[in-house]
């Protein structure tokens, strides 16, 4: 459990210091900033351990809050009774905005494709990354399925066999829905449809797909079973979501808007608002994260299709949970949640850029080897694409079905592509159930095969 901030701040902390501890004035003055000396936006739960022992934590907190209040920007009102959400533009948030603008727009994605010179190869690679978000978001919610099994489930498009697998398929469909509906305005109907698609037939009695909760018997508990969040009452929930949607649909990033907000900040705020309101009996986290992506897509940050934030959230679920609690326990200061999410997004974008750079290097090496070996003239365009993807290590097995989907061709064409690679001694195939599964030979075996 976290330590909540003092219920009341000292009204005039510097006057109190001047009267009672003037020798400590300089030490207290160093705290008069929204962030600490390392740029961190600390909650009282963390700040109290980092203060000099001779300083009063309540006075110190009052000074920090005074500095923050002067720079707060108000966003929307939430809950019942309504509370105003505000935030401070921390260094981490500013860095994430910069990285997002430089690396994730549709124009950036087009440039990556042109730089590699193999647009289909990059698309195939990135389609694989889309799966990572669906899988990790499910695992974050407790799906007990390994990533390897989940990848196989999505690539082979087999029917899910358990509630956990249904959750993963549902999340994958939600991401697809978010992309396909990116030009729509946010509405209650869109949110309900997103939930319906994501959780239908997992456990309908528990989830009640596509229906807002009508009771107040829902709560969020931690790993030890302690209640950490009781959502606002179900009474008036639909009205509150309508008001939230109206705020989301306002264009705050117009250059003439005096209340300018970058789309990344709004997308994260929407993520928080859905998690806080908890409009459904279950599946709220998945819907919240899907709506984050939907808003980024809506604002032309297309590369977020391939940036999996849940992979990193899953690695530190306690910190993810605390970012919610820090906001809720400090008078709806959204900075804690924004700051944490922006740190995650910076890491996720760096991983995305790393995948691109690795792809670029692999492509260059592969093309050189392909030309020198004499295979280049033997492979058609589609075979080159599949072979390059296999060689990069992103995908280890292929079926005619997933090649058909990723290349956008007919099933028979996909089969011909794969069987052609087998004939060229680049791939092997084996029967699994009713379908053939293809995989690339090791480079050593390919070279041996061609030597012979």
In short:
This protein is mainly alpha-helical and 452 residues long. It has three domains: 59 residues, no CATH class; 264 residues, Orthogonal Bundle (Fic-like fold), CATH 1.10.3290.10; 78 residues, Winged helix-like DNA-binding domain superfamily/Winged helix DNA-binding domain (Arc Repressor Mutant, subunit A), CATH 1.10.10.
Describe the secondary structure blueprint for this structure.
Elements lengths: L12 H8 L4 H5 L14 H4 L9 H13 L3 E6 L4 E5 L3 H13 L2 H11 L2 H22 L6 H10 L6 H18 L7 H12 L4 H4 L12 E2 L5 E3 L7 H13 L13 H15 L6 H15 L10 H7 L1 H13 L5 H39 L7 H12 L7 H8 L3 H13 L3 E6 L2 E6 L2 H9 L1
Antiparallel strand pairs: 1-2, 3-4, 5-6
Helix pairs in contact: 5-17, 6-7, 7-8, 7-9, 7-15, 7-18, 9-10, 9-14, 10-14, 12-13, 13-14, 13-17, 15-17, 16-17, 18-20, 19-20
Q: Could you explain how this protein is built, in words?
A:
The structure is a single chain. This protein is mainly α. The chain has three domains: 13-71, no CATH class; 89-352, Fido-like domain (Fic-like fold), CATH 1.10.3290; 374-451, Arc Repressor Mutant, subunit A (Orthogonal Bundle), CATH 1.10.10. Helices cover 58% and strands 6% of the residues. It is built from 21 helices and six strands. The chain has helices at 13-20, 25-29, 44-47, 57-69, 91-103, 106-116, 119-140, 147-156, 163-180, 188-199, 204-207, 237-249, 263-277, 284-298, 309-315, 317-329, 335-373, 381-392, 400-407, 411-423, 443-451, and strands at residues 73-78, 83-87, 220-221, 227-229, 427-432, 435-440. A two-stranded antiparallel ribbon has the order 1-2. β3 (220-221) and β4 form a beta hairpin. The longest helix is centred in the C-terminal third of the chain and has 39 residues, at 335-373. The radius of gyration is 26 Å and the shape is elongated. The mean pLDDT is 89.
């Amino acid at each position: 459990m976290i330590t909540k901030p003092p219920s009341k701040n000292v009204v005039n902390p510097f006057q109190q210091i001047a009267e009672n501890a003037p020798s400590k004035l300089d030490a207290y003055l160093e705290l008069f900033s929204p962030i600490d000396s390392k740029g961190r936006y600390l909650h009282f739960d963390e700040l109290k351990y980092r203060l000099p022992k001779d300083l009063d934590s309540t006075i110190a907190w009052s000074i920090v809050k005074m500095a923050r209040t002067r720079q707060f920007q108000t966003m929307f009102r939430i809950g019942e009774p309504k509370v105003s959400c505000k935030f401070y533009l921390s260094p981490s948030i500013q860095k994430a905005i910069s990285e997002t603008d430089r690396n994730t727009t549709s124009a950036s994605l087009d440039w990556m494709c042109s730089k590699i010179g193999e647009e289909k190869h990059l698309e195939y690679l990135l389609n694989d990354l889309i799966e990572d978000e669906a899988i990790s978001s499910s695992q974050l919610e407790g799906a007990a399925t390994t990533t390897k099994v989940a990848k196989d489930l999505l690539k082979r498009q087999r029917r899910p066999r358990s509630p956990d697998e249904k959750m993963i398929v549902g999340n994958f469909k939600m991401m697809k829905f978010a992309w396909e509906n990116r030009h729509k305005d946010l509405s209650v109907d869109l949110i309900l449809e997103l939930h319906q698609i994501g959780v239908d037939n997992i456990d309908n009695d528990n989830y009640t797909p596509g229906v807002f909760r009508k009771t107040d018997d829902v709560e969020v508990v931690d790993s030890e079973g302690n209640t950490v969040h009781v959502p606002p009452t179900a009474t008036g929930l639909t009205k509150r979501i309508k008001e939230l949607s109206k705020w989301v649909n306002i264009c705050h990033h117009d250059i003439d808007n005096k209340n300018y907000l970058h789309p990344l900040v709004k997308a994260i705020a929407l993520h928080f608002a859905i998690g806080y309101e908890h409009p459904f009996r279950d599946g709220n986290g998945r819907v919240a994260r899907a709506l984050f992506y939907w808003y980024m897509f809506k604002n032309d940050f297309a590369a977020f299709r391939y940036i999996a934030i849940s992979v990193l959230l899953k690695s530190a679920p306690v910190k993810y949970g605390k970012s919610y609690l820090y906001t809720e326990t400090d008078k709806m200061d959204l900075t804690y949640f924004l700051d944490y999410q922006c740190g995650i997004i910076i890491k996720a974008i760096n991983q995305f850029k790393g995948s691109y750079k690795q792809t670029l290097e692999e492509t260059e090496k592969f093309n050189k080897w392909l030309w020198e070996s004499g295979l280049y003239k033997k492979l058609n365009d589609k075979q080159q694409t599949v072979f390059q993807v296999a060689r990069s290590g992103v995908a280890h097995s292929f079926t005619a079905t997933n090649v058909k989907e990723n290349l956008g061709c007919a099933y028979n064409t996909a089969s011909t592509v794969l069987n052609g690679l087998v004939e060229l001694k680049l791939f092997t195939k084996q029967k699994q159930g009713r379908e053939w599964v293809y995989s690339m030979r090791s480079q050593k075996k390919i070279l041996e095969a061609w030597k012979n």
